[in-house]
Amino acid sequence: MANLTKLEDIVSLCKRRGFIFQSSEIYGGLASCYDYGPLGSELKRNVRNAWWKSAVQMRDDVVGLDCSIFMHPLVWKASGHADKFADIVTVCKKCNVRSRVDHLVEHAEQHTEHVPVETALKDAKDLSKKKCPACGAVGQFTEPMPFRLMFETQMGANVEDSMTIFLRPETAQGIFVNFRNVLDTTRVKLPFGIAQIGKSFRNEVTTKAFIFRTREFEQAEIEFFCAPGTDEKWFEHWKEFRFKWYTELGMKKENLRMREHEKDELAHYAKGCVDVEYKFPFGSGDWQELEGIANRTDFDLRQHQRGMRTLNSWYEKKGDLSKIELNSESEEYQKGPLSYFDEETKQRFIPYVIEPSAGIDRSCLAFLVDAYDEDEVNGEKRGLLRFHPALAPVKAAIFPLVKKDGLPEIAANMYDDLKKYFSCFYDEKGAVGRRYRRQDEAGTPYCITVDGQTKEDQTVTIRERDSMKQERINLSQVKQYLREKLDM
Fold first, then answer.
1. For labelling, which of 7, 294, 411, 454 has a CA lying 20 to 30 Å from the CA of 283?
2. Cα(116)–Cα(204) distance, integer angstroms
3. What is the CATH number of the domain that holds 434?
């Protein structure tokens, strides 16, 4: 199996085969923004569906949600994003390029989100020996300064009634503010989770490595609510459950690892956190976060109870978040609207939360990298994507061997029938070997060929992508064959 060491190979494949394009490419492109093409949009949809099936459909203790991207500004005051969600940056005096301070150091990347800006600035180390990643100048930096990561926009038709709101930097807060709604409208009881998939936006100072870090991205998050004292058990459960998801979808174990956060890495609200990391082909191979799994304690629900009590101050100060202080926490906070009453123990408390948070775009990139392979067939180089069948953009390709003798009609009828159940592709152009190669490179697990023998005995040839093994089966059994192989 080939050892892919260059991200450029993946970028080239994605452009050539219609997986991912640069956004606004005909206008020169927009940095850190990407469009998913015909194959890429199918891959991304399959990754979403696989996550949702595992996290929601196949579990009895998780329900789904789809929240608005726009939320009340106080949500972000209560969550801490309005005051603390910033990177500490500096500007190179020689080339005028802005860089994150933590990206100037050589050790593993550390995040400054949810750390008070004053604290992060104090922690910024001496830059006199740091090297600019753009021009290589050493020690020629301005004083570190905060750079807010949330995108701002205005809501309202007129100046008088407009207010500043934000594009959400994460999907989690929509779940927390709907905690009571879900409790009141469903029959869920603790422990239970709420899951959602959706777009988030961060005005990143430094973007990285194709779709690995972008300013617009898609998250798949679960907030799993449990009783205090049971959180450690559920933290271990979700660590194991989420790691297994990647390997069950074909990701190689040697390319995955779990990394526990050091104490100085933890967000101030977190009791513990681990990252599922993948060895991406950045340079010679670089372990980077695919997913974070955190024990957030009861921080978020308690904060939003404070935020709810602060609403009048927000109106009085005309929505200026910088002038608003959250109301102090009541001594009876455990009886607040975001608390939970356990019928069995007769106790009321604020639930603890375990949060598995995955990036759909990063997952797509990791699955692309992991599936990429090259081998040799009859002295000819073959590039292919060894996708798990559940993720493959196209499940089956149908070919008539030649464009005559009624073979295209038989193949077209089969295609029309199969596409009701699977994502299929019809191709009658070129030598059948070349058609196989095109589908191998797209990651299609099965190719079905209609040939002269089909008219004699109603059988077709099915060829499997990875082994290239071929077998003949009856035309009437093709649908069931694919269902069994694809587990659909």
1. 294
2. 18
3. 3.40.50.800
Confidence check: pLDDT of 2 > 60 = no
Asked whether residue 303 is assigned to any structural domain, the reply reads no
Other residues' Cβ atoms within 10 Å of the Cβ of residue 298: 21
Same domain, 360 and 407: no
- Is 215 within 8 Å of 32 (Cβ atoms)? yes
pLDDT of residue 109: 40
Structural domain boundaries, residue 140: 86-148
Q: Is the dihedral of CA 363, 367, 370, 372 positive or negative?
A: negative
Pairing type for strands 216-226 and 192-201 reads antiparallel
Same domain, 247 and 356: yes
Q: Is residue 112 part of a domain?
A: yes
Query: Is residue 185 domain-shared with residue 291, that is, in the same domain?
Result: yes
Query: 279 and 200 in one domain?
Result: yes
| Domain CATH number, residue 56 | 3.30.930.10
3-state helix, strand, coil in the chain (%, to 5): 35, 30, 40
Q: Is residue 12 part of a domain?
A: yes
Which among 468, 469, 451 has a CA at the least distance from the CA of 460? 451
Single-letter residue type at 85:
F
| CA-wise closest residue to 213 among 111, 126, 142, 130 | 111
What are the tokens at 472?
A: 């003949």
Count structural domains, the chain. 3
SS3 209: coil
Note the pTM of the prediction, 2 decimals.
Answer: 0.86
The predicted-structure confidence for 439-475, as pLDDT tens digits, reads as follows 999 999 999 999 999 999 999 999 999 999 999 999 9
Nearest to 65 by CA among 188, 163, 242: 188
| Domain identity same for 278 and 419 | no
Rounded Cα distance, 245 and 146, in Å? 37
**Residue 365 and residue 271: Cα distance in Å, rounded?**
30
Alpha-carbon distance 458 to 438, whole Å?
26
Instruction: Give the 3-state DSSP-derived string for 96-152, with helices as H, strands as E and coil as C.
Output: CCEEEHHHCCCCCCCCCCCCCHHHHHHHCCCCCCCECCCCCCECCECCCEEEECCCE
CATH of the domain at 100: 2.20.28
In a domain, 63, yes or no: yes
